[in-house]
Known about the structure:
The structure holds 2 protein chains of 2 kinds.
Chain A: E1 2-10, E2 18-22, E3 28-29, E4 31-32, E5 38-46, E6 49-57, E7 60-80, E8 101-105, E9 108-111, H1 126-137, E10 141-145, H2 161-173, E11 178-182, H3 185-189, H4 194-212, E12 216-220, H5 229-245, E13 249-254, H6 269-286
Parallel strand pairs in A: 7-10, 7-11, 8-10, 11-12, 12-13
Antiparallel strand pairs in A: 1-5, 2-3, 2-6, 4-5, 6-7, 8-9
Helix pairs in contact in A: 1-6, 4-5
Chain B: H1 25-31, E1 37-39, E2 49-50, E3 60-63, E4 65-71, E5 78-83, E6 88-90, H2 100-103, E7 108-117, E8 129-137, E9 140-146, E10 152-159, E11 162-169, E12 176-183, E13 191-196, E14 199-205, E15 219-220, E16 231-241, H3 247-259, E17 269-273, E18 279-281
Antiparallel strand pairs in B: 1-16, 2-3, 3-6, 4-5, 5-16, 6-15, 7-12, 7-16, 8-9, 8-15, 9-10, 10-11, 12-13, 13-14
Amino acid sequence: MIDIAITGSHARPFLANVEASWNGGAWSTLTTAPLAISFSGTLADQVAGQGALSVRWYDYPAYVYSTQYIGIGDIFIIAGQSNAGEIADNNQAYSHATLKASVNYAGTWRELTAGGGAGSMAKSCWPLVATAYLANQSVPIGFLACGEGSTSITQWQKPGSLYNRITAAKTLLGNAKCLLWQQGETDAGNGMSQVDYQTYLGALVDTVFADTGLKMMISKLQTCSAYTAGQRDTINAGIDYVWDNNANALAGPDFSDYTLTSAVHFQTDAEQAVQGSRWWAAIKAAYSW
Amino acid sequence: MSRTLGLVLGVPGLGRSSAVSYTPYEDILVDTYGAAEVWPLIDIASGTVITAKVAAARNGTLTNWALANAAGPYAGKLAPLLNGTTSKGDILTSNGSTGLVDIFNATAGWMSICFKVSAAGVWTDSATRYLMQLNVDANNSVKIYRDGGNNRITLAYKAGGTNSTQNYVVSSTGWCQAVVTWDKNAGADGENKAYLNGVAGLTRTGLGTWAGALTTGTLIGNYANNTYVWDGWLAYAAVGFGHALTPEEVGNMYNALLELAPSPLQLTMAITSPIAYKVVQR
């Protein structure tokens, strides 16, 4: 049961109580500041779903103002390297008859579509994950991506600006399901040892959980020409160690058996399909959906 | 006179049937908010008489108004246009008992008027323009006017040379309502409050001592003869004496006007958070 906080403004300055309703539910009275033209309040104990959020004056119910597609569902924060972000050749699209997938970019929510402009996340596997999620869970899904291309696990340690992206995302969102982590290509190419990688990754998992309460779902590296099979296996062994030994780490998709056509990126539609389907399978398994 | 707090009953809002009659705003001002006089200004078909709602003895005289020129603050009522140069409404009346001079109370009262500029440029033309004034002399007056500053309306109570003023930033090209109240017996040696669209500004204290009876310059839409003339529409000029409207009453007085409005355009409401597509973690 989730509370939806609401703030707004209106043109009737005094004793004009404002009511709110979400997704066709009961109308609840919000707080109207005396002599002000603002209102705020909470719709308490709402169940997951998606619908319009509406406000009205209690004595003037004919006039209703609504904002669409307000949802209670799951939000995933995404971090890591370029493969966690927009790297595909083509836009990918999510689909559902009624439910929406959303992305938070620069603090603003928008639909997860190519028309969303900068930060839309359309050129990624996340619309494909959204399609599977919406069909399976029947509640809306949201993403916030804060990764950075070509970054090492060392750069994501606390304190640091990249680490701060994760905590800032959690603060902005209020809460999230977990942190989806796809990274390691740079460290594989640099020949980082298993012990070093698993130590850094384990430390990141610990600090993220301590600071945000979020678990990290971690993927294993794919096969590509940017690093050798041995380098891939070294990093994946470190990831495997964290999967097995850190209670706050969740097993993500294993791409080690999948060979990319490009040097390092999941670029083609076929590669996006694999990336998306494996991420969804891992998420579904982690939460026993 | 009775005053009823809360929203006015029997005033249907949006969705009302065309067959339903509803209370005219001038009646609300008198019956609910205790206006001593209201000059509705709306729907004057012809002539030069500014009809007073409560007592014919307080009828005024208009000069150079474009009568029933455009839609007033609510449905089906046409407001006059003042031309910014020669328009004037003289409401100074005196007969020893029921004229405005006779009933005016400098100790406690209120004055209000609805206004709309003829164009957005009126707010930035550097001209002083009076909406309404109850005047004795340079040291004693109640006035609502646009001063020379950009996008600014001023409401003032000046007594014994002590000027108590408040400014509001306003750039609206729609209908607005300004209200000024005074109560010499309230607070620290008197209080003066000002309101724009029902919202209160600061409370000014330390009012001066009023001296003199209302005289020339008690006008609607004009400061003196063709000086500082309003450029736009006016409606529902009103005064009340013996009681300074409370913030609650002023707010509801404005709300009552909104509820008579024909269009939701005047009933703005917005959700600032959350906006569309927001997802909350379940």
